[in-house]
Design goal:
Blueprint (H helix, E strand, L loop, with lengths): L1 H17 L3 H10 L7 H20 L9 H19 L6 H14 L4 H29 L7 H20 L4 H31 L1
Helix pairs in contact: 1-4, 1-7, 2-4, 3-4, 3-5, 3-6, 6-8, 7-8
């Protein structure tokens, strides 16, 4: 039973993550606008994903427990380029991409660097979600933000809580997923709230 549950959680997470950002990218392309999407939130999320992937890889954790992160990073980079495109300057993305690429190598120069980064990773990821929430509260407009993407993120956090408990039992990772689950549900609810408000106004 435990083996089946672990298999289901791992593979369902991978399947969901393979399409996680596609509703968001699709909504953005349909609207031809980055309205409602917080750039600081996106950049912080990308940083959090990068640190988390590097940490898991560095400590040799089972590949299936973090295989979705290269997929998520690729989708976030596409989303980032779309945001810069609709904001009028794709070239502005270049310095950020250089920083992220160099960070991949810098993070594992010393063990204390990757450990410190991972401890900050939960804060960085929570800050990314909070930045999106602040943007929504400020504009009171969910714009091109996809509620489906955020709800799928909630699902993947829930499944990763299960897989972490069943494999590595790494407390740092577990705390991160619990906090991310709470924030993802909060953002989803906020997006849906402002979407209903916009419909009523119309």
């Amino acid at each position: 039973m435990e083996t089946w549950l672990l298999w289901f959680c791992n593979w369902s997470t991978l399947v969901v993550c393979a399409a996680l950002k596609l509703p968001q990218i699709s909504a953005l392309l349909r609207a031809r606008s980055a309205r409602g999407i917080s750039l600081p939130s996106l950049l912080l999320e990308l940083a959090g994903f990068l640190v988390f992937l590097r940490y898991q890889h560095y400590y040799g954790y089972p590949l299936l427990t973090y295989l979705e992160y290269p997929i998520l990073i690729a989708q976030d980079i596409i989303l980032l380029l779309c945001v810069f495109h609709f904001n009028g300057n794709v070239k502005q993305a270049a310095p950020y991409l250089v920083v992220f690429l160099s960070s991949w190598f810098i993070l594992t120069l010393k063990k204390w660097i990757i450990d410190t980064a991972m401890n900050l990773c939960t804060f960085i990821s929570a800050a990314s979600k909070f930045a999106q929430l602040q943007y929504l509260w400020k504009t009171k407009d969910s714009g091109a933000v996809s509620a489906l993407t955020w709800s799928l993120s909630s699902y993947t956090c829930a499944t990763r809580i299960i897989t972490t408990l069943m494999t590595t039992s790494d407390l740092t990772i577990l705390i991160r997923f619990v906090i991310m689950l709470a924030f993802n549900i909060w953002v989803t609810a906020t997006v849906l709230h402002y979407r209903k408000t916009a419909v009523k106004t119309e």
